[in-house]
Amino acid sequence: MKFALSTTFSLLLLLWAVPSFAQTNVEGSYPVDYISDINDIHIDDSGLGYLGGTCGVLRKTTDNGATWTVEDSPTDNDIISLACPPGGCGTRLLATDDQLFRLARNRWTEVTYANYNDGGELHWLTDDLVIHEAGSAGFYRSTDGGINWTEGQFGANKDSNISFPTSQTGYLVADEKVLKTTDGGASFTATGYTHPVRVFHINFLNENDGWLWGTDDLFYRTSDGGVSWTQLNAEVQLTSLRWFTPLSATRLVANQGITLAESNDGGVTWTRGQYDIQNVRSVGRKYHRSGDSFFLPGDQNQLLYSASNFMDFIRLDDYERSGDYIGIAFSDAQTGYAIAGNVLLSTTDAGVSWTKQSTGTVARNLAIIDGAPIILFDNNTVTTSDFGVNYTDYFPVGLVPEGEFPDVVEYKPNGNIYFFGRNYAYESTDNGQTYTAIQHNQDMFATTLFWFDDNNGYVLDRNRKYAFTTDGGQSWTQGPQFPGFSPTDIFFTSEEEGFAHNFSTRYLTTDRGQTWSRASDNFGGYSFQHRQGDDNIFGIRADGATNTVIRSQDNGGNWSSLTSGNCFLPKAGTITPDGSYLFVAGAGFIVRHDMEEIISSTPRRELPAALALKAYPNPTSDVVIIDVPLSVSSSTISVYDGNGRELKEQSVTLGFTQTSVSLDGLPQGIYLIRWVADDGRSGRVRVVKSGK
Asked: Which domain holds residue 187?
């Protein structure tokens, strides 16, 4: 049976696209100044390519992914798919869930067609022929390089992706029926095969050899162009599959998020493996393949690369990751700390730069007591006086019973320090010199603690348990189960009235937590607090994988956004003791906000995009020459290691466009060289130091 195309739509809009406020050049961001989950990538044979991700981030490479620079994006919405024609990336298409853009002659135009509703996936098959696979809605087809589009009809509901082994031959599954095109998607014909269950993924090596995988988690294979299919193994080999692709008739590879899988017998048996990348983040649902090489985009700016055979992956993103930043605190306006997994970060310049030290094991929480960082572990509580070079036990021997180290700590309004653990609390009335243990037997693993005054306190734990005290924590009363999973924060505006959050929902109480109701202004939230000497409440609003700083001037009744938002999931936040900055920490990033700027709505100063510097020879055994822009103001060159530590700094001679940097005495590895001019311009390049 033949399913023909119907319903043609002409171009709706042709316009200059206004540069967006995508998450690039983010001022005060660590470890880099762009923030995105990368969704798609395309690199042509010359090495010119682009990657796109959430919050409109668009980046460009001219050297096959070795270095990347900021590219003006036509949108600040999430970029879902992008593609270039076989002739090269001088022309390209970019899709969000709401709009479709085309770039030609360095000019973006919007080419969104009628009924457009999904970013989907773009397949640019010839210089003129493009298929836009629009999720479950089907697909649209362009024969003029993405300017005008025509809707494709199957006469059925699309189940799988579309696989094009050639520019004219393609396959998909709709209502369990395998369909085939031999005219570049102009029409589809049923092959005669109907699969017993719904199919999620189909992929062909050539016009005849293909594989599919469906809801039964089993692989099937065809060798006759989809007419007949054979089950390869009755035993389930893989689940939660994001995509698979054949490299040959015997070797297939697959992505499962943070793990990979491979088969060397044509898909009969599979072996799961690792990408062997430290702190690897989830690999996305799209990839770019060029010959035997693979580019894999992923979360938190991640870009992985394999030169051959889906093996020996390396990072192409230009910095070393830590885990998620789950705690952050400052002892003064300049000195602060953050924890991520088994790493303690410290800053002495208000977050302009951070230095890493190992904590030895995964930390759970962080606080500042008497100017020193206190790090809470499952089986200990420690402090450091030298930014994490050395650690000492915080509590005296014999105070904490076995298995009863605390999970959270807060100051009371009167200055007393109160730690809350599973069945014990520990209170100090002399600024941490001595502590008294209090047995409360609540069996709680606390995630958040709040003191309204010296007597009234409230606590939530990771298992949704809730308790309160009216006698300063000498005893605690357990209330009803909190309605939201994985609570993140609790805050009370009176003894009886308060609110609490998890990552997606806000709940209100007017009876000290005996009942909770969903707020009408529903949102997830973290780290709600007062600024010193300020009655306003500041907090971090979470909307999926984005966050904004918010403020209430009426005790939590109404909220207003103070920032445009950053594209990462928040985990913690803090205001510096002098009230100058609010820091948001979370999944992969720390961002500093100037409090006076965001409160007064003063536009933030836009910084020039970081330039991609040139370095040669690269790799080098010692001295490397750096090309820098001509500058009439002073400028400096700094060398950083993979942990972000500045190893050396030198001035650039005024009026010179080259400077030499010696890596003598440094071990072999990858170093970031950064150029900064007094006029605000900056640039960077990665340099590899090799052996002699």
From this structure: 155-274
